[in-house]
Write a structure and sequence with these properties.
Layout (H helix, E strand, L loop, with lengths): L3 H16 L3 H7 L1 H5 L3 H8 L9 H8 L4 E7 L2 E12 L5 E4 L21 E11 L2 E7 L4
Antiparallel strand pairs: 1-2, 2-3, 2-4, 4-5
Helix pairs in contact: 2-5, 4-5
Length: about 140
Amino acid sequence: MKTLLPLILALAGVVLLAGCSTPQTRIKKNPAAFDRCTPEQQDLIKQGKVALGFDVEMVKLALGDPDRVTTRTDASGTSEVWHYETYETSDGAILYTGYYHHFWGGPMYAYYLDYPARRAVDHFRVAFKGGKVVAIEEEEGY
């Protein structure tokens, strides 16, 4: 019985880590998209960073799926904006950051829902025109 508990805990840890999406796990899932990138772009993707001119697949490799998508229209035309959000408590304590936590505990429940005073903070935005990144906005401190 004493050896069973550490084994169960180790297995639970492996399952949790396997669920986390990182640039490395996303690269393994889509090596063809990664292989067509330049060495400089590959270095940025491995660091979880994006640059102007990246296409949709490259941004997904670096950052994963966006938390939400909006359309922006201005004098220069229409662009698609990907938003990456963090949930915080009313006093600024971070509850989560990253798309993975949307489904923590099952598809119908995210643990941060237990905080009624939570607020979504749009900490990173990527704008696309014609399928290419044309703007990147990042909040400091994230």
